[in-house]
């Protein structure tokens, strides 16, 4: 079965991230981003809504000298990951692929956990399109979207080696998660 890792894997995401016993390491997994505004398509894939940049290069992140190009972002509501057992209203995954085909950790996913709060500029820019396609399998061009609008700034992250959270549940992925906030109207 090509999705056997979903059931039998040992590094499966999502997980409950615990603040107890967390090792704080300065500069471990430091994220350096060089994103660029680019044309994007919003797509309802049935199990989530994704935003994919097309016909251009939306940039990359550098993790301790390894480069990963941004492929797409998608949302899960409620969040898949929890922190100390608490689930968040929304979770955004930024999916990046390694630019080095020989690198072991070929995918890096940055997760952003949203609690209800102040408006989020990135979500606010997309909310009209997201809500109008929430119940239909469709896609639409949404023009130029700047990945820098996604609030992944900050230096505190949970980092672990995990898996994709949807089939084929491929393991050995770099996973980064951090909390953020958004208004109720900005959460699809």
Automatic annotation (TrEMBL):
<keyword id="KW-0456">Lyase</keyword>
<dbReference type="GO" id="GO:0004089">
    <property type="term" value="F:carbonate dehydratase activity"/>
</dbReference>
<dbReference type="GO" id="GO:0006730">
    <property type="term" value="P:one-carbon metabolic process"/>
</dbReference>
<feature type="domain" description="Alpha-carbonic anhydrase">
    <location>
        <begin position="1"/>
        <end position="188"/>
    </location>
</feature>
<dbReference type="GO" id="GO:0009570">
    <property type="term" value="C:chloroplast stroma"/>
</dbReference>
<comment type="similarity">
    <text>Belongs to the alpha-carbonic anhydrase family.</text>
</comment>
<dbReference type="InterPro" id="IPR036398">
    <property type="entry name" value="CA_dom_sf"/>
</dbReference>
<dbReference type="InterPro" id="IPR041891">
    <property type="entry name" value="Alpha_CA_prokaryot-like"/>
</dbReference>
<comment type="function">
    <text>Reversible hydration of carbon dioxide.</text>
</comment>
<dbReference type="InterPro" id="IPR001148">
    <property type="entry name" value="CA_dom"/>
</dbReference>
<dbReference type="InterPro" id="IPR023561">
    <property type="entry name" value="Carbonic_anhydrase_a-class"/>
</dbReference>
<dbReference type="Pfam" id="PF00194">
    <property type="entry name" value="Carb_anhydrase"/>
</dbReference>
<comment type="similarity">
    <text>Belongs to the alpha-class carbonic anhydrase family.</text>
</comment>
<keyword id="KW-0479">Metal-binding</keyword>
<dbReference type="GO" id="GO:0008270">
    <property type="term" value="F:zinc ion binding"/>
</dbReference>
<dbReference type="InterPro" id="IPR018338">
    <property type="entry name" value="Carbonic_anhydrase_a-class_CS"/>
</dbReference>
<protein>
    <recommendedName>
        <fullName>Carbonic anhydrase</fullName>
        <ecNumber>4.2.1.1</ecNumber>
    </recommendedName>
</protein>
<keyword id="KW-0862">Zinc</keyword>
């Amino acid at each position: 079965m090509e999705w056997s890792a979903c059931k039998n894997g040992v590094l499966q995401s999502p997980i409950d991230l615990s603040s107890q016993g967390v090792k704080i390491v300065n500069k471990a997994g430091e994220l350096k981003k060089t994103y660029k505004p680019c044309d994007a398509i919003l797509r309802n894939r049935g199990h989530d809504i994704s935003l994919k940049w097309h016909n251009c290069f939306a940039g990359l992140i550098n993790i301790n000298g390894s480069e990963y190009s941004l492929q797409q972002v998608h949302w899960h509501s409620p969040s898949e990951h929890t922190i100390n057992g608490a689930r968040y209203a929304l979770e955004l995954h930024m999916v990046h692929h390694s630019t080095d085909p020989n690198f072991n950790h070929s995918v890096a996913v940055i997760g952003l956990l949203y609690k209800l709060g102040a408006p989020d500029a990135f979500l606010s820019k997309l909310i009209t399109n997201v809500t109008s396609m929430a119940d239909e399998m469709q896609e639409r061009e949404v023009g130029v979207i700047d990945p820098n609008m996604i609030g992944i700034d900050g230096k505190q992250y949970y980092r672990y080696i995990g898996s994709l959270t949807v089939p084929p549940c491929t393991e050995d992925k770099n996973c980064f998660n951090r909390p953020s906030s958004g208004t109720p109207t900005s959460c699809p």
